[in-house]
Design a protein that fits this description.
Structural class: mainly alpha
Radius of gyration: 18 Å
Order of helices and strands: HHHHHHHHHHH
Number of domains: 1
Largest sheet: none
Distance between the termini: 15 Å
Length: about 240
Amino acid sequence: ILLAWLWVVRKIMGDEPIPEIEPIHRPRIELIWAILTLAIAMMLAANSYAGWIEQPSWILPVFMVASVLLLFIVFRYPCRDLGLSWPTRRGWLSLLVVILVNIAAAALFQILPAGEAEPIPQADLSNQISGVWSVLLLIFGLLWRAALPEELLLRITLQPRLAQFVPLGWAILVQSLLFSAGHLPQQLIYYQEPILIAAADLLIVNNGIIGGYLWWRTRSLPLLLLLHLFAYARFGI
């Protein structure tokens, strides 16, 4: 499914120019900064789920966003490098393709015989919806706790700096693996998954690859946020 999506999106994007971002100023230092931010974020997430030390629920997203913004301020990057731009019509169409794939996958699960497809409770958000207000609260919560900090750190900050040391395709794959690894505390502590199953979750790189590819082609944070909100819940993690 992922390969089919990539093929379709390449056809959609065609020869549309790739938006430019400013060259990375200090690749090695900035890459270490991003990796340390991810490592500390994983420790904060583990503590949040395990409750070893009391911490406010807002500390994790605030730390991730603040660390990224501080990097961009310290090294004097323009605001456009944060993805503060509206995607083109082809970019929106690529996002639509992902959402349609999710709808098709959900429909497939509905027609499979009982017992053939195990439910994925962490991906099923329907039990959290009881009305319009709950939908808005759910979207805002996902946007603040997951979409914004994760897209800023993994796709917008980490991926371009990885690409200074390895080819772009490998940079997208590595940040995808790190994106999956960042959810290990959730899988191991919150969902109580066995170690082998949680480790196998590292192989679910669909979301990271899709997000990484779309960031490279569009340089648009709004598109990444909508992708995270309306595609990731069913496409992978």
